[in-house]
Amino acid sequence: DPELAADIRVYFQTLAICLTIRFFLIEPRFIPSLSMYPTFDIGDQLAVEKVTKRARPILNHEFPVRRNEVIVFQPPPAFKAIVSGRAKNEALIKRVVAIEGDQVKISKGVLYINGK
Known about the structure:
By secondary structure, the chain is an alpha+beta fold. 30% of the residues lie in helices and 22% in strands.
């Protein structure tokens, strides 16, 4: 049936477009803990843009990491060594509080960047 063949072709074209977007442009993520509260709450969903992550190593001077930027990254081996279960392989979602050259101090639960 030509109509069925056309439907199948459209289905696979749509699937290919969706997978391309998912793997190269935008990735869905959810917030599993309160570590980003009050900006994000448990269960919040994010659409993480992936182009900048790939472009930064090439164009570092044009896309520097900025203070207060929310970033997604793979945890370092030391983190994986102390975390068990599925969370061990999950990417971390964190806010950049300081950049190279900043002085960071925590006093009585208050974060100070460059004395402020």
